[in-house]
Amino acid sequence: MELGILAGGIMIGLAALAAGIGNGILFSRYLEGITRQPEAQSRLFGQAMITLGLVEALPIIAIAFGILLLFRVIGV
């Protein structure tokens, strides 16, 4: 087994894991904020969506690099 294939697979897997953990933390804090101050729901929702975009950006980039690494090693 080539080390590049293994590295690409690990990169993709850890990126998915990090996205799941980040989204879980984000929305648990969002729901906690809504329960503490229901009148701030619209403001918190906007901030949560901006943060969601930031949280998802890094795993998407890591998945792209992992796929590039996999296909480069395979020879495509």
TrEMBL record:
It is a multi-pass membrane protein. Its main location: membrane. Keywords: ATP synthesis, Cell membrane, CF(0), Hydrogen ion transport, Ion transport, Lipid-binding, Membrane, Transmembrane, Transmembrane helix, Transport. Signal peptide: none annotated. The record marks E56 as: Reversibly protonated during proton transport. The keyword Plastid does not apply. GO terms for cellular component: plasma membrane; proton-transporting ATP synthase complex; proton-transporting two-sector ATPase complex, proton-transporting domain. The chain crosses the membrane at residues 6-27, 48-74. It comes from the Bacteria. It is found in: Cell membrane. Pfam families: ATP-synt_C. One of its GO terms (molecular function) is proton-transporting ATP synthase activity, rotational mechanism. F(1)F(0) ATP synthase produces ATP from ADP in the presence of a proton or sodium gradient. F-type ATPases consist of two structural domains, F(1) containing the extramembraneous catalytic core and F(0) containing the membrane proton channel, linked together by a central stalk and a peripheral stalk. During catalysis, ATP synthesis in the catalytic domain of F(1) is coupled via a rotary mechanism of the central stalk subunits to proton translocation. This is ATP synthase subunit c. It comes from Marininema halotolerans. The lineage of its organism: Bacteria, Bacillati, Bacillota, Bacilli, Bacillales.
